[in-house]
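Appendix B. Chain record.
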Amino acid sequence: MVGPERPQFVLFGSSIVQFSFSNEGWGAVLAHIYARKADIILRGYSGWNSRRAVQILDQVFPKDAAKQPSLVIVYFGGNDSILPHATGLGPHVPLSEYIENIRKIAIHLESLSEKTRVIFLTAPPVCEKQLRASLSGAVDMVRTNDSCRIYSEACLEVCRGMNLKAIDLWTAMQQVENWETVCLTDGVHFTAEGSKIVVKEILRVIKEANWEPSLHWKAMLTEFSEESPYDPVSEGKTINVSEHDLTGDSPWE
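Structure tokens predicted for this chain:
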């Protein structure tokens, strides 16, 4: 382990999480925003559904760990919503089981510590035409935007019932004109613009949450932020650059 010890933010989910550090993804953007404030830890598993997530909860989030995460951002639902295959194989998870799995994940994460906060991301929309073209028959599965809506609404309902924070990505992304091409690369995964929406919504929820201590980046201490004679010099004085970017103000709130 390296020090000093920082708060840990864990991103837990399927490919939407695994790929979040590529293509100017939302995980990478969060790591940039929270530089010197929190460690963004990736636990993404491409192709996974909520059933597999429940099976490894104790391994990814052991209850006896010496340090527990301050925040866990969870995404499962898109793969669950894929329509059932005739063989019974594949990632589909029936809606009733998906609902129960989200509950199990939430209960486990909230039991880690009194200070562990949780945010769920719902299934985002998919562009069916783009998805069919990107798969080109390589994978025998059907994923529709309406099935994503159903699983998204189910996730939101569970979170409302458990008083948990949730972000409705299915609705948020479709507010963008030409969202199919502006927000998605292959009908499913995010462009840089799509990731900006995810980051904006996450920061909004964190800012509005009545959490103590606050996990909003502006409210968190910056590591080694004291002034130093070794800081850059402007007009005969040093500039403490630990709290701001010399190229301009941050676009994030």
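Further analysis of this model is presented in Appendix C.
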